[in-house]
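[job 4471] stage=fold_predict status=RUNNING
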Amino acid sequence: MNTLLHPPFQHLQGILEPRLYLIELVGKEHESITELIAALALRGAFDLIAAGEWLPDQNRIRRALRRHTVAVKETLDHLILARPFTCFQFRDQLERANSQKHLMLVLDFLHHFYNPDLDLSLRQRVLEECCRHLGRLSHSRQIIVLVQRLTVDEYQNFFFMIASIADEILEAEIGVSSEAVQDSLF
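[job 4471] inference complete, writing structure tokens
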């Protein structure tokens, strides 16, 4: 089924084999991510791990799905949502995840590892464990990991950890073109 992925996620159109795609986001265009979620739901069942604070509400996903199908409710059932609230819950979810054949999408992968209430060495150890679990899972399923580029001190080190296990790393500049068009109108 053609899922009609739009930039910045066009590259993911033909993913069929198990591998880990790491996408570094430059900008916070939630609409593009909502479209990605809808497109993946149209393809079939997939795991969605919302590691960050943001998750598109169901109404936005429904609107995105209506542009492609009338079977909105059935298509929404393809989405298997998990919401860890700490890096430890995130690690536990990845550890328990089985090697199912359907895709996994992880939103804002590094979010919980920026918690200053936890010692940096502990956060790094848990992040290494999460990366190990993702590496294991990527041998049997497609995994798409979205990481928001930040200017905090830990970012480069954390990004390197997940990048070291990725099969493919993409940079997605999202939200830039729509803002530029709007600015020129005024």
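[job 4471] summary: Strands lie at 19-26, 46-50, 79-82, 103-107, 142-148, 168-173.
[job 4471] exit 0
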